[in-house]
Design goal:
The protein has 158 residues and is an all-alpha fold. 55% of the residues lie in helices and 3% in strands. 17% of the residues are buried.
Length: 158
């Protein structure tokens, strides 16, 4: 039995005939990063009605030395932010520096404060106290069966 003939549409042909191009990360292409930064600065200045931006020498050095998160997209976002924060159209390294990866943890908060075992034990104790050690009522308040509450009480030595 012959197979039916389905001609390839131009759109499908374009999708099937793709070519993979290996491009090194932006950090390995320092001069490309500077060219892209200048391009993104002009685009952002036009979009936000800012004066024509200029990159200081320190900003150029920062662009070359930085490992940009998300490569080109990360550089574009950092430059756009720098254009909005710059004064007089001069983008300096301090404005261009990427934000830190993680927010600092509040002082005085230890990892032990997030122990779920202690939190569960405290919650069971509070429910038992509130319901005058009536296990059936405490279990209902906690959304557990009586047997599940007894197992958890045994686990925590209550």
């Amino acid at each position: 039995m012959p197979r039916p003939y389905f001609p390839l549409t131009p759109a499908l042909r374009r999708r099937l005939c793709t070519v993979e191009v290996s491009v090194p990360p932006l950090a390995a292409r320092e001069d490309d990063a500077v060219l892209l930064a200048r391009h993104f600065a002009r685009l952002a200045a036009d979009r936000f009605g800012q004066p024509k931006p200029m990159l200081s020498e320190a900003a150029v050095a920062t662009i070359r030395a930085t490992m940009w998160p998300d490569n080109v997209r990360g550089l574009a976002l950092a430059v756009e932010r720098a254009v909005l924060l710059s004064e007089g159209g001069i983008i300096d390294a301090a404005i261009l520096a990427p934000p830190p990866d993680e927010a600092p943890i509040a002082a005085g908060v230890s990892e032990a404060a997030f122990d779920l075992t202690d939190a569960e034990r405290t919650l069971i104790q509070a429910a038992l106290r509130e319901h005058r050690h009536n296990v059936t009522h405490a279990a209902a308040a906690l959304g557990l069966s009586r047997g599940a509450l007894y197992r958890r009480m045994a686990r925590h030595g209550l």
